Amino acid sequence: MDLIYIIVSSDPFTIQRRLEEIKSKNPQAELVRYDLREVPIERAIEDLDTCNFFEPEKIVVGEQAFFLTAEKKRGMIEHNLERLEKYVTHPNPDNRLVLVTDSLDKRKKIVSLCLDHATLLEGEISPQDYIRHHLDGYTVDKETLAFLVEYCGLDSTKIIMEWEKLKLYCSDTKKITISDIKTVVMKNIDDNIFTFIDDLLLGKKKEAFEIYQDLLLHGEQVASILSKLANKIRLLYQVKVLLKTGKSDQEIARILGVHPYPVKLAREASFRYPETLLLSYLSKLHTIDLEMKSGKSSDTIAFEMMMASI
User: Fold this and answer.
1) 42 neighbors 3 (Cβ within 8 angstroms)
2) pLDDT tens digit string along 165-219?
3) Which stretches does DSSP call E strand in 57-211?
4) Beta strands 4-8 and 96-101: pairing type?
5) Cα(29)–Cα(162) distance, rounded to whole angstroms?
6) Which of 26, 51, 55, 157 qualifies as a FRET site for 32, CA 20 to 30 Å off?
7) Residue 167 and residue 245: Cα distance in Å, rounded?
8) Predicted local distance difference test score (pLDDT) of residue 189
9) Residue partners of 306: CB distance under 8 A and separation at least 6
10) Is the pTM of this model over 0.70?
11) Cα dihedral 228/229/231/232 (nearest 10)
12) Is residue 192 within 8 Å of 214, Cβ to Cβ?
């Protein structure tokens, strides 16, 4: 088993799967995680150098190892990279070090040194590939697998969770179909909320109420639906404003601190609504929220009255 690993990815699903790969080589190992934006690397190295005695070996994970990238991040803590250099050349054979970064600047001395002594794990792991390697005797065709991924809104963690649910549901036949997915899996909430917004603002009351009832059926609370609706309308407005500046989906996602997928949905929907309309509905939702929290009206009545009035 190697002593040092570098995981290059910004995808949480891929990072988690890589860590599981490393831990599978020693299931008894203790996984210790450090956010290197908040904790200096020397703290992690001290943990690595601590004798384990009767404890299991440790896998010390240094996440957000930005000092391996070309990006200059201000306001971050200082890291003693000389200490890291010494550790990399003389690692503790009883423990494992894993550095996680979204990119590598191979011009840097520390990066070259790490690559000389570490196992590099790069390349995204798609949920499709993960499922293909974990069929467990089940069959699913390419079209159905693609449908599952799209139906879950490209959310890798949700895809795997829903896959396990589907296996339980189809345990008799051992075959998973698109019909099974529609029966078992709730459509991604982002997709449903954007469709809900479209139906509301376009006056499609019947369709809006159907989505509303479906959300309630799948455990969503009225207050949660109101919050998500306000967040998505706010996102629509923010995306419209940022699109005027020529920003791409990726740039907008980074500025707003959200995943690119809901930004893509917002961009596709944003052209249908003027900014003034979006602001007016945000105001209405804010008023309803205040009424609900003050007890002037029940959650259900206040929200359904709003839908009926559109």
Assistant:
1) no
2) 899 999 999 999 999 988 888 766 666 776 787 787 777 888 888 888 887 877 7
3) 58-63, 96-101, 119-122
4) parallel
5) 28
6) 157
7) 46
8) 62
9) 284, 285, 288
10) no
11) 110
12) yes
